[in-house]
Write a structure and sequence with these properties.
Blueprint: H1 3-10, E1 24-35, E2 38-46, E3 57-58, E4 61-63, H2 71-83, E5 90-95, E6 99-101, E7 105-114, E8 127-134, H3 135-140, E9 144-149, E10 175-183, E11 186-189, H4 190-203
Length: about 210
Amino acid sequence: MNLSNIITKLKDRKPSILGHEQFRKSAVLLPLIEKDDELHILFEVRSIKMRSQPGDICFPGGRIDKEDLGPKHAAIRETTEELGINAAAIKDVIPLDFMASDLGRIIYPFVGRITDYEQIVPNESEVEEVFTVPLSFFLKTTPEKYKVNFKVIPEADFPFDLIIGGENYNWQTHHIEEIFYKYEGRVIWGLTAKILTHFIELLGDE
């Protein structure tokens, strides 16, 4: 293969995330509702029957299926399934920044408006309850932040003889920052808090 062939093969290619084919892909919706003449954000409490993160506070969302037309479609579908509402009740769905992690996950968050929130009937198999928090609370509240450090532990058969430094190799360790919001006895943290903080930062000084 010569240089011309290489350029021809690659020049129209659109870059993506390396290895994205193996990543687990999910989509979530940050739901806005109008309640008591004020904007609120709606949250779910995951059912205690769930195998993954039971009782945690989250936004509606889940895995992107092959049948979904894309992340936006998946976010809307998951919201309708979890909240028992019609897709027509979900308006103005706008993408936020997507998130990719070393743990092999890509999360596509969206923000959208839910009308007729009084019609919500949570899916009991997935949702223990729903509640709302005034948007104004997050606009004026600084969340607590803590670091979680990671440690590198090579497997027993790791080929130290193939790297400079061997067993004394200077591994580059890193950490993640966990964010916590506390509201009336509830704690919002993890991925939900990160998406929420990103959304609040986009609003700026408004």
